[in-house]
Amino acid sequence: xxxxxxxxxxxxxxxxxxxxxxxxxxxxxxxxxxxxxxxxxxxxxxxxxxxxxxxxxxxxxxxxxxxxxxxxxxxxxxxxxxxxxxxxxxxxxxxxxxxxxxxxxxxxxxxxxxxxxxxxxxxxxxxxxxxxxxxxxxxxxxxxxxxxxxxxxxxxxxxxxxxxxxxxxxxxxxxxxxxxxxxxxxxxxxxxxxxxxxxxxxxxxxxxxxxxxxxxxxxxxxxxxxxxxxxxxxxxxxxxxxxxxxxxxxxxxxxxxxxxxxxxxxxxxxxxxxxxxxxxxxxxxxxxxxxxxxxxxxxxxxxxxxxxxxxxxxxxxxxxxxxxxxxxxxxxxxxxxxxxxxxxxxxxxxxxxxxxxxxxxxxxxxxxxxxxxxxxx
Length: 377
Hints:
Blueprint: H1 2-33, H2 53-67, H3 74-101, H4 103-132, H5 141-157, H6 159-166, H7 177-201, H8 207-231, H9 233-240, H10 244-267, H11 282-305, H12 311-324, H13 327-339, H14 355-376
Helix pairs in contact: 1-3, 1-10, 3-4, 4-8, 4-9, 5-6, 5-7, 5-8, 6-9, 8-14, 9-14, 10-11, 10-12, 10-14, 11-12, 12-14, 13-14
C-alpha cells in the first residue's frame, strides 16, 4: 500500500511539473509571435464576460502578463519553483497522515477538506454578488452565522452521522440514527425560519433584494449538495471497506487526469468543451480513458486486491467511471468559476489554486465507489 501511495505522489508531481512547463512554453510562444511594435489582436468576447466584471479584469491582466513573459527557460523554471514545492509538501503530508493514522486520519482529512471546499465556493459566490452590486466586501455577522449554520446542518446529516454510527466506540453513546435525523431536520427548520424572517425584515426588502439573496443561497446550497454530500461517502467507504477503496479510485483519477494532459499536448486538435474548459481536447479525453483502463487491473493487483473475487470486474467498473464521468466534475467546477468571474476557487495552494481545484473530479467518484462496493463486493 505504501508503494502505491508513493506512485500517487509521483504522478501528481509529474502532472504539476509538466503542466507548468507547458504553460510557460505557450506564454513564451505568444510573446515571440506578438512583437511589441504591433497592436495585440483583440480577443473575442466570451458569453460569460458580459456579466462578469471580474473575469473581464482577469482577461486584461492576463494579456499584459503574456506580453511581458521572458523568453527562454527562465519562465519554465520559475513556474516549476512555484508549483512543485507546494505539491510535494502537500502530498508528502498526505502520505505521512495516511501511513501513521490510517482510517482515522482520512476521516479527519475529509472533514478539513469539506470546510475548505465550502468556504472557497461560498467566497467566490459572495465576491461576485458584491462586485455586480458595487458593494464593499464586508462580512456581516448575520450572513456568516447563516452560511455556516447551513453547513453544520448538512454536515450533521452526512459526515457527522456517518462517524457517529460507524465508530464502534461512539456507538456506546447510544446515539440512534433516528435521533440524528431529527436533530438535522430541526436545524434545517431553524435555518428556514431565520432565512424567511430575515428577508422579510430587511431594510431594502423587495424583488431585487430577494433575487440577490436567493441567488446566493441557491448557489451555496448547491455547493453543499455537490461538495459536502458527495465527499461524505469517503467516510462511509473507509469505515466499511478500508483505505484501499479510497486510494485506488484516487489513483485512477490522477492517472486519467495526467494522461488527458499528455495526450492533449501530443495529439490534441479538437476541443472537447471549449466554452467550459478550453484546454481539454477530445484526443486527451479518449487517450486518458484507454490509459486508465490499461492501468486499472494491474494497479488493483499491486495494491493488494489480487485475492478479490471478480477483480477484473471491479477494476473495469472503476475505470469506466473515473474515465467517463469523473472528468465532468472538473467541467462543472470550471462552469462555476466562469459564472462567477473567478480564475481559481482559492489561493491555499500556491500555483495550484484552492482545495476544490484539486478535488473536483475526486469528489464525483466518492459516492459511486461506495454504492458500487455496497452492491457488488
